[in-house]
């Protein structure tokens, strides 16, 4: 399935998702297929692998707000977290695993989906192990450290007949969906240019995100990915070439990963997108799309909360949602209806191929073709 969803199917999805959220009702057509759960399963059980900040402060609380999912198990390498989480979320010890005994999850019927929330270098291993254990997989972004790893993850899930989705939460966020819709409908004419950027000032120099082997890269892999994604889904095109430059102000702190990268992407229509990402300054968090007859913009564009959108037709005011809850509910619908997620493994693979080209361009000082 290419990234170019027909605009009509994407529009129907946008409308049904928005309507479902607004009414607090079921997401489009869900009730008709609850039979797929069997009579007793009204909700899919998720196991979180890796209980760091994201799981603790965003995903686990998000799970409590879902309509179609619940926390059914945990996997952690930190024994003291086991009792804390078991108590907080009423989890029986039979649903608590560590990285060594993880494969026993195969016999745990309470768990339908494994959500991989580990350092990037561990995504492939746990996605493959989860698929082999017969579980569907939702994996945090970036999907992996290389396109080759992504391909192995896709293959493992396919051979196990399990679904694989990547945690691209913004593709379910109402302001992003409204902008996609406005641009697909050409309400302001066709797209002329895009500028997108996401960055922040990274703290602790000892964290895994600054270790090349674990993170696979720096700002680009972590937050630049959001700007890259936005250009692809807002334009509804795939880039054909990239040109990139890297800058470093702190050679010691960023010895193993990129600190700041700017890059341009050329698209088949002639559109050029200019993107930037950094680990050395706060406040970069925007998308600005110039069209024939105006503009569409998001800012803050990629935060967990407080996203705002504007256009030359006026501001776009929509009810905020829990992005993690919405993403997990959407994956539950994909599983139950046996439909590939709009943020499938193929979507993650496409981004990694582009990221590899961006790094290569910065390294070799030339434009890299993506043909």
Care to describe what's here?
- The chain has 371 residues and is an alpha/beta fold.
- The protein has two domains: 43-166, Rossmann fold (3-Layer(aba) Sandwich); 171-320 and 345-369, Dihydrodipicolinate Reductase, domain 2 (2-Layer Sandwich), CATH 3.30.360.10.
- It has helices at residues 7-23, 53-64, 79-88, 123-132, 147-159, 174-184, 212-215, 219-235, 323-336, 345-364; strands at residues 44-49, 69-75, 96-97, 113-116, 136-139, 164-166, 191-201, 241-247, 260-266, 272-278, 280-291, 294-298, 309-311, 368-369.
- Helix 1 (7-23) packs antiparallel against helix 6, helix 2 crosses helix 9 (323-336) and helix 5 (147-159) runs antiparallel to helix 10.
- It is globular and about 55 Å long.
- Residues 1-40 have low confidence and may be disordered.
Give the helices and strands, then pairings.
Elements: H1 7-23, E1 44-49, H2 53-64, E2 69-75, H3 79-88, E3 96-97, E4 113-116, H4 123-132, E5 136-139, H5 147-159, E6 164-166, H6 174-184, E7 191-201, H7 212-215, H8 219-235, E8 241-247, E9 260-266, E10 272-278, E11 280-291, E12 294-298, E13 309-311, H9 323-336, H10 345-364, E14 368-369
Parallel strand pairs: 1-2, 1-4, 2-3, 4-5, 5-6, 7-10
Antiparallel strand pairs: 7-11, 8-9, 8-14, 9-10, 11-12, 12-13
Helix pairs in contact: 1-6, 2-9, 4-5, 5-10
């Amino acid at each position: 399935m290419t990234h170019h969803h027909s605009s009509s199917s994407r529009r129907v999805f946008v409308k049904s998702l928005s309507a479902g959220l607004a009414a607090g009702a079921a997401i489009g057509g869900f009730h008709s297929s609850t039979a797929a759960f069997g009579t007793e399963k009204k909700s899919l059980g998720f196991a979180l692998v890796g209980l760091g900040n994201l799981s603790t402060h965003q995903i686990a609380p998000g799970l409590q707000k879902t309509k179609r999912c619940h926390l059914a198990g945990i996997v952690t390498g930190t024994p003291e977290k086991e009792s804390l989480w078991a108590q907080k979320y009423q989890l029986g010890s039979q649903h608590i695993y560590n990285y060594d005994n993880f494969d026993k999850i195969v016999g745990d019927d309470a768990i339908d989906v494994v959500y991989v929330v580990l350092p990037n270098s561990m995504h492939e291993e746990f996605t493959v192990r989860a698929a082999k254990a017969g579980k569907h997989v939702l994996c945090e972004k970036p999907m992996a450290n290389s396109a080759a790893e992504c391909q192995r993850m896709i293959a493992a899930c396919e051979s196990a007949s399990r679904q694989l989705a990547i945690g691209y939460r913004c593709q379910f966020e109402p302001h992003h969906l409204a902008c996609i819709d406005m641009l697909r409908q050409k309400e302001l004419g066709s797209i002329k240019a895009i500028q997108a950027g996401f960055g922040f000032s990274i703290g602790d120099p000892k964290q895994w995100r600054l270790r090349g082997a674990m993170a696979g890269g720096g700002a680009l892999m972590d937050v630049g990915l959001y700007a890259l994604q936005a250009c692809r889904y807002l334009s509804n095109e795939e880039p054909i070439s990239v040109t990139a430059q890297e800058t470093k102000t702190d050679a010691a702190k960023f010895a193993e990963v990129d600190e700041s990268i700017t890059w341009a992407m050329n698209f088949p229509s002639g559109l050029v997108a200019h993107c930037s990402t950094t680990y050395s300054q706060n406040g970069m968090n925007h998308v600005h799309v110039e069209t024939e007859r105006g503009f569409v913009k998001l800012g803050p564009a990629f935060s967990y909360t407080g996203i705002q959108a504007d256009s030359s037709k006026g501001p776009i005011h929509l009810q905020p949602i829990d992005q993690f809850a919405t993403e997990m509910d959407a994956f539950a619908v994909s599983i139950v209806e046996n439909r590939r997620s709009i943020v499938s493994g193929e979507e993650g693979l496409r981004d990694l191929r582009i990221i590899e080209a961006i790094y290569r361009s910065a390294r070799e000082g030339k434009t890299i073709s993506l043909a």
